[in-house]
Amino acid sequence: MAFRAYPGPAAWRAGDFADGSWIDVLTPEQRGELAVAAKALPADEDRWLEMSRSDLDLPALAPLFEQVTAALERGRGFALLRGIDMSPDDVDFAYRVNWILATALGEVIAQNTNGEVIGAVTSVVDANDNGLETRGYVSNAELRFHCDGGDVASLLCVRQAPKGGYSALASMTTIHNTMIEECPEQAQTLYDGLSIYMRKEGNLAGRTMPKRPVFFSREDHLLSWANLRLMELPYEASGEPMPAHERAALDAFEEIAERPENKLSFKLQPGDMLLVHNNVCLHKRSSFTDDPDPNKKRLMLRLWYNVPGGRAEAITPMDRRKGYFTQNPYVIRHR
Ligand SMILES: [Fe+2]
Questions:
Q1: pLDDT tens digits, residue range 251-260?
Q2: Could you tell me the distance, in angstroms and rounded to a whole number, from the CA of residue 167 to the centre of ligand 1?
Q3: Global pTM?
Q4: Whether domain 26-320 has CATH 3.60.130.10
């Protein structure tokens, strides 16, 4: 096929953000407004699910939410809110803050078979490999570059690990533009698509999904989705070797993503919320060593949401973007 490069704000490089200008620090007024709204949520978390954006009155935060959505939907594809007022010891309050932010920004979807909409990303297994059985977010292992479910994945940092646990982002548009120059054959393989393995979870059996393109070409922009590990696992599950052209394509994709000029690396701080558009940016995390005190373990709250009318609409209509965790009713969390 004839390839074309896609310029624009989604085709960024790490150096574009060396000045930290991509980080939005909340003003004291915004912090206060968020804390008041979070405290006002009912004690019964089930009732939070009945709320919608119109129930919120956040005049100081509203311009910031617009700016974040513009960056995610029409710009670079990621954002970071910093300075959210919360204590590393008050996990319940972090859930409240997360819910207010999520309700203001989009339509939340479940992220596991239990129907949970806020997931605790913390190490409950000491794993050095995220294999056929283990979803990455419950381990302390490195998570290689991937995209999550939903239009936008967010991570609210409650507690950080003393060692490791760095996050990194890469622009899939930049990777695409580089691949069509340097290795068009591998780019073609990614346009043709790769299978994805969905791990066994709840009453869902592990299974390999049909091939799905990594790159989706649109009129004037590119949409993408990739998960390196889930694209390798179909072959580990079947015992068949990965075809050489698929291996070469994923290797090229990962090598370009990992180049220092393409990889924006940082360590989330308590009170940070990272938001990443899953059709624009890859994200990853380095391995980490936890604090020996179980009450001080690294803890991130993860949440996935869709943006009605957003750019993902060009691939999948809204009513089919709820993911595959739809067999159980939504719940904020299971305790
Ligand atoms: Fe992720």
A1: 999 999 999 9
A2: 10
A3: 0.95
A4: yes
